[in-house]
Structure formats: structure tokens, C-alpha cells
Write a structure and sequence with these properties.
With about 240 residues, the chain is of the alpha/beta class. It has one domain: Metallo-beta-lactamase, Chain A. The chain contains 7 helices and 14 strands. The longest helix is centred in the middle third of the chain and has 12 residues. It is globular. The structure holds zinc ion (2 copies). The site of one zinc ion has 8 residues, from helix 2.
């Protein structure tokens, strides 16, 4: 199994990076974690076929994590996709997706898809299985708008991938990431503590509790991107592959 960073940027295009989108593939799985606004062109640039993706997990409703869905669905309509697609995310996702589709492409939410499209709302700490992918969502803390906010612990093919999503420090990140084969964690700032986002120093202080087998930093601001050469941790870049 592998995870490829299709996009690991923030909402501001920091470092010219694409919005958040991770592509996970293995012998039995093909799914995305988040689908930010730039995801469709970023997938195509990497030669990833959107029509092969079976599952999309959405962490929250900010455009840099959620805004790519209308483009992907519109593209699927025109490429005559037949493979079923399941989109899962926080409570309210059905309504939020309809609103987003209508805002970007009027009447598109009423289009009858030629493929089976399911939209599923997830609740914190209720484990769900989608094909060969087991997903446990955890509530995270990311402000007043764009929620509810979920981080994910995903088990597939005997491996655990954990993703913090966008969040300030919260204790749920410990069970979310504990002993994970790969923890992808937001590191928005280096040591500045702000509301709604995680800084590397805060995360670092808790790593002995989380004990991930591997850690990759994502969703970095210019402050972090300017320190990439001096960091003790692996940092994501667009296109990067992590083998699991
Ligand atoms: Zn974000
Ligand atoms: Zn966000």
C-alpha cells in the first residue's frame, strides 16, 4: 500500500502547493483523504485516474479540503464513469455537498449520475467499514465554521494511516495516531501557538504518547516552509509517495 501526497498545502497556496488531497492505493484499496479545490488537476498531473477512486474521506468543509468534489463529480459525469463512488465525511455532508455543487455548477446537484454515488455522514468514534477500508473518525478542534471536524484513523491491508486533519492540539489525536504506521499531522507553525491549528512544537511534546512509527508533516504555512531544511521530521511535498 502507498500514500501519495497529491496536495499538502494550506488554504492560501503557501509554497505554491496544492490543497489537501492524499491518494492511498494498494491491492484492494483506492481512496482519497480530502479533496481540496485543486485536487482534480493535481490528480491528472500525477497521472492518477479519478475514475478508479472508490472512496473519498472528507475531514471538514473548508474549501482546501472539500472544494474539489464538484470538479471531480462533473468530470466523472463527462468521462462516463461507471464505478460506484462513496463519499464519507462529517455530519451534514449531504447538504453541504449539494450546496457546493449548486454554487459552483448550477443544477449540477440534480444531475442523475450514471454511476452509483453514495454520501455517508460519519460520527466521531463510530468505526465504519467501506470495502477493505476501516475508518475510525475522531473529533478534532478547528474553529466555528466549516465543521464538524474529523481526523481519521484508517486501517487497510494490515496498515494504519492516521491523519490529524486541521486542528489545534486535542487529546483525541492520541488514540487517533497511536502506534500508526504513518501519522500525517498538520504542522502549521513551528512554535507559535494559535487557535484552530497545530504547531510542530506542540505536536512534538506529545509524540511520546502517540508513538507513530512514521510521521509526515503537512498543511504548512510559509513559516514552516521556510524551515524545511532544518527540520528533524519528514515533511510532505506534492507528489511525494510514502510506501507502507
Ligand atoms: Zn486546511
Ligand atoms: Zn480547515
Amino acid at each position: 500500500m502507498q500514500l501519495r501526497f497529491v496536495g499538502c498545502g494550506d488554504a492560501f497556496g503557501s509554497g505554491g502547493r496544492n490543497n489537501t488531497c492524499f491518494h492511498v492505493t494498494g491491492s484492494h484499496v483506492n481512496f482519497l483523504i480530502d479533496c481540496g479545490a485543486t485536487s482534480l488537476p493535481a490528480l491528472k498531473r500525477l497521472g492518477i485516474a479519478p475514475d478508479d477512486i472508490e472512496l473519498i474521506l472528507i475531514t471538514h468543509f473548508h474549501g482546501d479540503h472539500f472544494g474539489g468534489l464538484p470538479f471531480l463529480l462533473l468530470d466523472a459525469q463527462f468521462t462516463r464513469r461507471t464505478r460506484p463512488l462513496l463519499i464519507a465525511g462529517p455530519q451534514g455532508i449531504e447538504t453541504r455537498l449539494t450546496q457546493l455543487m449548486e454554487a459552483l455548477f448550477e443544477h449540477s446537484s440534480k444531475t442523475r449520475q450514471k454511476f452509483e454515488l453514495s454520501v455517508v455522514a460519519l460520527r466521531p468514534e463510530e468505526k465504519r467499514s467501506f470495502g477493505a477500508v476501516d475508518v475510525t473518525p475522531y473529533a478534532v478542534v478547528h474553529g466555528e465554521s466549516g465543521g464538524p471536524f474529523l481526523g481519521y484513523r484508517v486501517e487497510a491491508e494490515g496498515r494504519v494511516i492516521a491523519y490529524s486533519a486541521d486542528t489545534e492540539w486535542t487529546e483525541t489525536l492520541i488514540p487517533l495516531g497511536r502506534d500508526a504506521d504513518l501519522l500525517v499531522a498538520e504542522a502549521y507553525y513551528y512554535d507559535r501557538v494559535v487557535k484552530n491549528h497545530l504547531s510542530l512544537k506542540t505536536l512534538e511534546a506529545h509524540l511520546t504518547e502517540i508513538k507513530p512509527k512514521r510521521l509526515v508533516l503537512t498543511h504548512m504555512s510559509d513559516d514552516m516552509l521556510g524551515r524545511l531544511d532544518t527540520l528533524d521530521y519528514m515533511a510532505a511535498r506534492d507528489g511525494m509517495i510514502v510506501e507502507l
